[in-house]
Amino acid sequence: MKLHYRMFSFFEGYFSNYIEGTRFTIDEAKSIVETGIMIPKRIKDSHDILGTFTVISNRAEMNKIPSNPDELFELLPNRHRILMHEREDCNPGQFKEVNNQAGNTLFVDIHWLEGH
After folding, report:
1. Residue 106, SS3?
2. 3-state DSSP helix/strand/coil percent for the chain, to nearest 5?
3. pLDDT, tens digit, 9 for 90 and up, residues 69-111
4. What are the Cα distances from residue 97, in Å, to 32, 46, 89, 111, 114?
5. Which residues partner with 106 through β-bridges?
6. What is the domain extent for residue 56?
7. Looking at the 3D structure of the chain, how many domains does it have?
C-alpha cells in the first residue's frame, strides 16, 4: 500500500475515533495499527482504532461504491462488523435498535433505519 494512502487511512481512523471519544496518543494508535497488539485495559478502544484502520486502508473495500440501496445495505453490515468486532453490545453488523448519542450529538433516529 502506498505510504500516503496508509497515512491518510491512519489519520482518518485516528480522528474518526478521537471525535467519538476514543482517545490515544498518536504513538499508541500507531503501535496498535502496526503491530495489531491491543493496549491492556483498553482492548475495545484499541480494536476500534484497528478496525477503523482495517476498513479504511483496504483500497478494494473503499472502491466498492454502491449503485443502489440494496448494494449499500450489503456493504454497511460487513464494514460495521469489522469496525465494532469487540463491541458485542452494539450488535456488530446489525442496525441499532435503540437511539444513541455522544455528548450533545444525537445520531440517526432508529425510525429512519431499515426495518423500522
Report:
1. strand
2. 55, 5, 40
3. 889 988 999 999 998 888 888 888 888 888 888 778 888 898 8
4. 31, 25, 11, 9, 11
5. 101
6. 3-112
7. 1
